[in-house]
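Handout for the seminar on molecular recognition.
Each group receives one record of this type.
Step one: identify the two inputs.
Step two: read the structure output and locate the region that could contact S-adenosylmethionine.
Step three: write two sentences on what you found, then compare them with the reference statements printed after the record.
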Amino acid sequence: MSRGVHLHRAGLNRTLPGPESLLELDIGSIAAGGAGVARGPDGRVVFVRHALPGERVRAVVRQETTRFLRADAVEILTPSPDRVDPPCPHAGPGRCGGCDWQHIALPAQRALKADIVADQVHRLAGLEVAVEVREVDGAPDGLGWRTRVQFAVDPAGRVGFHHHRSGQLELIEACPLAAPGVEAAGVEALEWPGVARVEVACSTDGDDRVVAVTSTRRHVKSLPDVNAGIIADGRPGRGPHGVRHRVGGRTFEVAAGRFWQIHPGAAEVLAGSVLAGLAPRPGDAVVDLYAGAGLFAALLGDAVGREGSVLAVEGDQRAAADAARNTSDQPQVKVRTAAVTAELVRSRVGRPDLVVLDPPRAGAGLAVTAALAALAPRRLAYVACDPAAFARDLKVLLDAGWTLASLEAFDLFPMTAHVELVAILLPPIAVMA
Ligand SMILES: C[S@@+](CC[C@H](N)C(=O)[O-])C[C@H]1O[C@@H](n2cnc3c(N)ncnc32)[C@H](O)[C@@H]1O
């Protein structure tokens, strides 16, 4: 250990680790954010990035609070059998903060994600679940799957990604996680003076549409000649200005900068899981909350037919416009631009037979979930990208007497600790008077 704070307190005479201290640590489990968990010499928990359960590592402390430390494993003293060489030359301690599980074999990544999900559901919802995280087609070797990438740009106009919890950039010449369509835009090979960020999205329907959305930090006379459509500070330049995806026999158009599932296989597997779990019948009334560009609304619209109905609620105006366009052939689908709130659920969605919700990372929250519990549709599908937020909302439903009928997990974010869930929930059985 080096460079710690030397303390004489309550008869103790020991060195507490502080920033830049070097510690030797044994990694126990994995934390929800993807770091290994260890005990520091003073008993505080240490979250150790770039480590694996079972490893003994030498780690440099990056951040200290009264309750825990954050550290990076910089030397692996006893490696795990699941450790591999990172495929990207920019991965590693103090380097690109984009995907920090590159040192873990893919099957072990999925097993660790399953542990994280089971642990969060147990801790926060009090339920024991067996979880299997399924591989999804479209990411050979866990690479080339990001169909949307946000590049940062340094003041000199060079492209990179932020280091973990840092304003500093790792300059890159290529990103192995980016889909070939994104890389074809050639963003990294160009210089972007005056630009702060460039987000690139590509189609997955076989066309070669690629769009770059830039935001600038100062007036820029002209942008470099990127091999993509351009939208600069919200102003459309050369087209195209959106991308296309094909799912369940339908084509979805998504405006540049708006949400679509990033992994090329994601929309298909999530829609398949939601439809199988909800088992919609012709004539059903369905509510799709946080509807984005209308992925679930359109496919459920086909399933319930013209005698049924789908109400899609989406907060972002341009995403809602995409959803309306993507379902314009379906009179049974109505798109409403509105924030999802408890009040909206209580009084503006009627009495649906089925509900699907796919909220952002923060989850639906306690108030919205409680309002959904009171709606008591026949089935509810909860699509979640944050196991902790999901487990917190799940507890609200379980406390209201709901049952978790199934929980599927998909590896939509290889090389990271992220995972996507689809939960099917059933309301309490109505007690007959
Ligand atoms: C995870 S995406 C899901 C989109 C869609 N279900 C899909 O799979 O393509 C979440 C969506 O919720 C929208 N959103 C975020 N907060 C919202 C809120 N409070 N009310 C309504 N929509 C919201 C975002 O604009 C985004 O389109």
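Reference statements: The domain at 146-245 is CATH 2.40.50.1070 (OB fold (Dihydrolipoamide Acetyltransferase, E2P)). The longest strand covers residues 68-78.
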